[in-house]
Design brief:
The protein is α/β, with parallel strands linked by helices. The chain has helices spanning about 5-20, 80-90, 125-140, 155-165, 190-195, 215-220, 250-265; strands spanning about 55-60, 65-70, 95-100, 145-155, 170-175, 200-205, 225-230. The protein contains 7 helices and 7 strands; from the N terminus they run αββαβαβαβαβαβα. It has a 7-stranded mixed β-sheet with strand order 1-3-2-4-5-6-7, with helices on both faces. The protein starts with a helix and ends with a helix.
Length: about 270
């Protein structure tokens, strides 16, 4: 399976779940910018990041033992309602949660594509920029928390897995991990990234996720350090199947419970 095809299809199709189609544009990490005080509590350090970025959002006590850096998906904003619910819930459990915007994605959903080089085939450079961005976020905000967990939703989960070792994370926690591009389960690049992960991980996944449902993931034989928690009938956005009687709110509450227990046990 062609690697470039795998990367393009994954992020392109994510927009069908989280938002409208996005146009290609990327900013560069070399631009100057300052991060100040988070809108949801906590003073954040200053640093050099893109000027177009808005202030990161922080939940939970500044004196927490655990810092969870939560990266959003390619069709989400960092203040997406589901992420707000998760961050606030974990904050109430005493976990410090930091959300931040990816390049060219504003705080309130100004969505731009993260498919670097679309039309040129240069997809690896896009991952490199996003990885560097997450590494810089962790560098700025890692201290003084004793334990670090990195993670995210969809694209954010994938990038977190790829940089976990580089930033010295103690664990990874993912929501709706994109195991493969939709309709291309033979593409195993995301699976291999999980197998190579040197730290424990938790993945909360909908059983009918188009990027890896329960039947498909069962055959991957992931290492025992990777835990899977399934939400029955949920899709990639953790929305239940119509008529099942469940609700997205109930699924998000379960996600908070599982994430909280897992992170606090790291």
């Amino acid at each position: 399976m062609d690697l470039k095809s795998c990367q393009y299809q994954t992020e392109n199709l994510t927009t069908r779940f989280f938002g409208s189609p996005m146009r290609p544009q990327l900013s560069h990490l070399g631009q100057a910018g300052v991060w100040g005080t988070g809108a949801m509590g906590g003073t954040l350090e200053s640093g050099t990041l893109p000027a177009s970025h808005t202030t990161p959002l922080a939940d939970g006590p500044e004196g927490a033992d655990h810092l969870f850096v939560l990266a959003h998906g390619s069709g989400q904003a960092m203040d997406d309602r589901a992420l707000q619910h998760i961050a606030a819930g974990l904050g109430r459990k005493g976990i410090r949660v930091l959300r931040f915007p990816w390049p060219d994605m504003g705080r309130h959903g100004e969505r731009e594509t993260l498919e670097a080089g679309r039309g040129t085939g240069d997809f690896a450079s896009g991952d490199g920029m996003l990885e560097a961005h997450l590494v810089e976020v962790v560098r700025l905000h890692r201290a003084p928390y004793p334990r670090l967990v990195v993670g995210g939703w969809s694209l954010g989960a994938r990038i977190a897995v790829q940089v976990a070792a580089r930033v010295g994370a103690d664990a990874v926690a993912c929501l709706s991990y994109p195991f493969f591009p939709k309709g291309k389960p033979a593409c195993r690049t995301r699976v291999e990234a999980l197998r190579a992960l040197p730290v424990p991980g938790l993945i909360i996944q909908g059983s009918r996720d188009a990027f890896g449902n329960r039947e498909q993931v069962r055959g991957y034989r992931l290492p025992s350090r990777i835990q899977l928690y399934w939400l029955e009938g949920a899709n990639h956005a953790l929305v239940p199947r119509p008529g099942d009687g469940g609700s997205r709110e109930s699924y998000l509450k379960r996600a908070v419970r599982e994430l909280g227990s897992y992170i606090q046990g790291v």
